[in-house]
Design brief:
alpha+beta, 3 strands, 192 residues, 9 helices, DUF721 domain-containing protein, GMP Synthetase, Chain A, domain 3, DUF1159, elongated, 3-stranded mixed β-sheet, DciA-like
Length: 192
């Protein structure tokens, strides 16, 4: 036993078979998705989501088509009533039983999502297994990554765009007209 411990400590210092901490052994590669979900869990909790499951499985809950232009933004849970002596004397106020789902929606699609609100709430509640969401609010905001339009590399000027007998004295004007003609030709070819 003592020889094995000495072997471990010498092997650990020389980068051998055992790790520096014998309790912690190499577990191989871990999937990045699991680590990312664990890292994002506190941020999701701050937004009212008890787990990342709703965010991760949003497309399967509401359907791929609806998920393209919607994303859950937050869940607002009702506050728990405080029990004091005053509350016993006053009649109990009716509080909502479930949460409010704030849904981020691309602007032009907000009317469509408002029309589908009941169906979306039913699907979310069936995902949770109980009536978790009783109200839905729509927040018009971009969903997904914003993409910049792709820039095309300028085509080399096509001198055949202008007739050869075109007499244009100003070289800058001639070059600009050639570039304009080349761009028009390019867009015409793209439409076909």
């Amino acid at each position: 036993m003592a020889g094995e411990t000495a072997e471990r400590s010498s092997a650990a210092s020389s980068g051998g078979r055992y790790a520096a901490d014998p309790k912690r052994r190499a577990q191989g590669l871990k999937p990045l998705g699991g680590l990312a979900a664990r890292a994002l869990e506190p941020a999701a909790r701050a937004r009212g989501f008890t787990t990342m499951a709703l965010l991760e499985q949003w497309a399967s809950i509401v359907g791929a088509g609806t998920a393209k232009y919607t994303a859950p933004d937050r869940l607002i849970w009702p506050r728990q009533p405080r029990e004091t002596a005053e509350d016993e004397e006053q009649p109990a106020r009716k509080r909502p039983e479930g949460a409010t789902l704030v849904l981020r929606v691309d602007g032009p699609r907000s009317i469509e999502v408002q029309y589908k609100a009941r169906q979306i709430m039913e699907r979310v509640n069936s995902f949770f297994g109980y009536r978790a969401v009783v109200e839905m609010r729509i927040k018009q905001a971009p969903v997904g990554k914003l993409t910049r339009p792709q820039r095309h590399d300028p085509l080399p000027p096509d001198p055949t765009v202008l007739p050869e007998d075109a007499e244009i004295e100003y070289e800058l004007l001639r070059d600009a007209l050639v570039r304009l003609g080349t761009a028009a030709k390019r867009s015409q070819n793209r439409k076909v």
